[in-house]
Amino acid sequence: MKTISKYLLISLALLGAVACSNSDFKKTKSGLMYKIISDGKGAPAKRGDFLKMQLMQKLRDTVLYSSYGSFPFYIPVDSPRPVYSPTEIFTQLRKGDSAVAILLVDSLIRKSSGQFQMPPFMKRKDKITLTFKVLDIFPGQSEMLADRKLEADKEKDREVHAVEKYLADSNIHATRTESGVYVVVRDPGSGPQVDSGKQVLVHYTGKLLPSGKVFESNMTGPGNEPLKFVIGRHMVIPGWEDGLKQFHQGGKGTLYIPAFLAYDQRPGPGHTAYENLIFDVVVDSVRNAPPPPAPRPGMPVAPKIRPGTYPIHPAPHK
Questions:
Q1: Helix (H) or strand (E) holding 74
Q2: pLDDT band at residue 265 using 50, 70 and 90 as cut-offs
Q3: Are 84 and 201 within one domain?
Q4: Where is 15: in which H helix or E strand?
Q5: CATH of the domain at 270
Q6: What is the mean pLDDT of residues 290-305?
Q7: Out of 19-28, 53-62, 91-100, 277-286, least confident range
Q8: 238 part of a folded domain
Q9: Which one, of 279, 300, 301, 284, lies nearest residue 292 by Cα?
Q10: Is residue 204 part of a domain?
Q11: Is 271 among the domain residues?
């Protein structure tokens, strides 16, 4: 289990509707202000445990992130160290506890020795309010992973239900692939079929589901070159790898992709996790793929792709 980055701990928080004045808060050794709301029952977390939490982050009066109604977070507990981070109070938390922590941006900058890069939406003297709700505590990684799988299955069910509801409400008749992509084929095309090992060139318009808001398109206008990639080399999100196989060259249609086949827990084009997506697609060309470039000694092979292009498969989450 990889250690959660300091930025992630700054960016996330647990939900708790707790209104407190600064006088209600205690301070850790590093100066982090916090308050724990607890009934005192149960044993507190210890080093090696994993916390299952709901999280929310608030900057000024704006909620930047909330995991409520979505997938919870699983966070390892380490020995408390004065690092100006919510990790300092993890060993004080019990199952069912809520907590609030306040991070001052000026203190983050000063205490991080230059490692904290202030996002453009933050200002000096800003205050980040983090709220926590501890759903459970697991004594080891195996217990945590078992529970995480159960929650992942529930999240997939939520995503599938949301896509199917959208299709039903919109009176759209789509065919579901084996992996779970919903496809409407308006024109199957008549040329070579999209398949593993084929290089395809695709024009597309990407939209958020259910809002239908367009986030990117190369159909018309400047920069309307088709996206070129090879099926089977994991250069695009899994929903594209599978959904496009329903088309031949010249084919046109729409892919309705649940989040687990898109960006999953990573922020997608709408800048949130677990986003369901829609892509209108036109398969311009299907051809035999060129051989992959020979790697230079000691260098990993990486596809050269246009930054900011959202069907592209993201780097693994760390």
A1: strand 73-76
A2: confident
A3: no
A4: none
A5: 3.10.50.40
A6: 58
A7: 19-28
A8: yes
A9: 301
A10: yes
A11: yes
- Tell me: pLDDT of 15 over 60: no
Give burial (CB, 10 Å; 0-12/13-18/19+) of 270.
middle
Structure tokens at 188: 């199957």
More confident residue, 59 or 276: 276
| Domain match, 243 and 201 both | yes
What residues make up the domain containing 199? 166-288
φ and ψ at residue 53, rounded to 5 degrees: -135, 150
The pLDDT, as a whole number, for residue 76 is: 95
Instruction: Give dist(CA 108, CA 13) in Å, integer.
Output: 16
271 with 211, same domain?
A: yes
Same domain (yes/no): 214, 258: yes
Structure tokens at 167: 């299709």
Residue labelled with tokens 């941006």: 105
Q: What is the DSSP string of 162-224?
A: HHHHHHHHTT---EEPSSS-EEEEEE--SSSBP-TTEEEEEEEEEEEETT--EEEE-SSSTT-
- Tell me how many domains the chain contains: 2
What tens digit of pLDDT does each residue of 196-210 get? 999 999 999 999 999
The helix (run of H) or strand (run of E) holding residue 94 is none
Output the CA torsion sign for 217, 221, 222, 228: positive
C-alpha distance from residue 311 to each of 18, 43, 202, 207, 299 (Å) = 40, 46, 11, 11, 25
State how far the Cα of 308 lies from the Cα of 235, in Å rounded to an integer: 13
> Which one of 109, 144, 179 terminates a domain?
144
Going by pLDDT thresholds of 50, 70 and 90, the confidence category of residue 243 is very high
- Helix, strand, coil share (%) of the chain residues, nearest 5: 20, 30, 50
DSSP H helices in the chain:
6-11, 105-111, 141-169, 238-243
Of 144, 176, 203, the residue at which a domain comes to its end is 144
Nearest residue to 240 via CA among 252, 217, 257, 253? 257
